[in-house]
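4.2 Preliminary Data

To establish feasibility before requesting continued support, the project team ran the inverse folding procedure on a target of 155 residues. The structure was first converted into the token representation described in Section 3, and no sequence information of any kind was made available to the design step. The complete token record follows.
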């Protein structure tokens, strides 16, 4: 990186932080390459995900921003142009189910966590959601505005 002030090359890092974590976190994995090939290697998913280190204010406010895995979309086939889509989702009873067209069958948590999913959905835990809502209420009561995305030189 070339410093704008001293015009010297200096080591630099760039970091992005989440300002307002979503209720549902959707993660898309890059499973297809530019040549149309597919990466079918399985990934091991976390049942719970803590993204506090990636939320700008969470550690300072000591609010854990945690999610639980609720569903995923899988693709079976050699390329993005052909194949079949299935999904796995958690039912209200806590059991994971595999959805394949008209077929629905229970699957183990282990199968759900070790999959070749390419879209993964995490839902914010109720405890995190409640603490964040409390923070918002305090901000409103103090007549403050919640931090908005800023674009400033040097940030």
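Position-by-position output of the design step:
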């Amino acid at each position: 990186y070339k410093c704008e002030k001293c015009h010297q090359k200096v080591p630099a890092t760039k970091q992005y932080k989440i300002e307002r974590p979503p209720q549902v976190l959707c993660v898309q994995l890059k499973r297809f390459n530019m040549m149309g090939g597919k990466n079918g290697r399985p990934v091991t998913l976390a049942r719970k995900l803590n993204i506090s280190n990636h939320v700008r204010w969470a550690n300072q406010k000591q609010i854990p921003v945690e999610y639980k895995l609720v569903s995923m979309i899988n693709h079976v086939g050699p390329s993005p142009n052909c194949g079949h889509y299935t999904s796995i989702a958690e039912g209200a009873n806590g059991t994971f189910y595999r959805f394949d067209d008209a077929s629905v069958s229970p699957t183990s948590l282990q199968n759900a966590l070790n999959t070749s999913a390419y879209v993964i959905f995490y839902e914010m835990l109720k405890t995190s959601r409640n603490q964040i809502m409390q923070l918002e209420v305090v901000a409103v009561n103090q007549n403050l505005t919640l931090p908005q995305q800023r674009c400033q030189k040097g940030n």
